[in-house]
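Researcher: We're teaching a course module on how sequence relates to structure. For the next exercise, students receive a sequence and then see the predicted structure as tokens, so they can try to spot secondary structure elements on their own. Here is the exercise chain.
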Amino acid sequence: QYTTIRSTRLHSTSSVNNDADILNDPMFIQPQSDKSSEELINIAKRFLFTSKGLGGDPDMLASSFQFEGPVVGPLSKDAFVTAIGSVDFDTAFPNWTPQFYGFFVDPLEVEEEGSSNRVWYTAKGYGRNDGPLLPFAPEATGKMVENPPQVCSLTIDKESGLITRYTIGYVTDRSVGNTGGLGGLYGILYALGKPLPFPEAQPWKMSWQYSFFQKIGSLINN
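Model: And here is the predicted structure for the students to work with:
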């Protein structure tokens, strides 16, 4: 079976004339790159700049704003602003280095007017905990935090320029960094040795059901 699949793949590859045939294949979808897309990306960057990517300027949020993470939310604008305001991240990490890259406007999530308004990007970042992170860590730990890459998005209303939806914390490689594969605040607290006491704020651990399923699969294959 492997030989048949491999032969089919080699035949398919040999039928491609040049790189242009590959790059022009419909499976490779190019992000939008018009002026409207540039404006949306600029709004996203201004929002992130206001708070190093942790929160953001409340004046840039629409009244209908919602925040969501892998296991958090959805939160309304008021709930989100209150939650972020209760954490003094600048005091805890005065020299935090945020890292944002790979900004693009979603080419598939198209609105009625024929264009998208959702900006995707990847977030990382690192820094040393030199101050208290209340109410979770009353004293500085002196520990370094290195975030894994996390896919995030900002959806922006084109008419008002206000943000209607914010998603963060979707880790793409849990082996990177020292947060136990967790994103957002949960990952930072884990790296500081102050994890919150519930499963969603802990590193992934194989369940006994999944372990049993894998063992059964191995027995069948053997």
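Model: If you want an answer key for the exercise: The longest strand covers residues 118-128. The mean pLDDT is 87.
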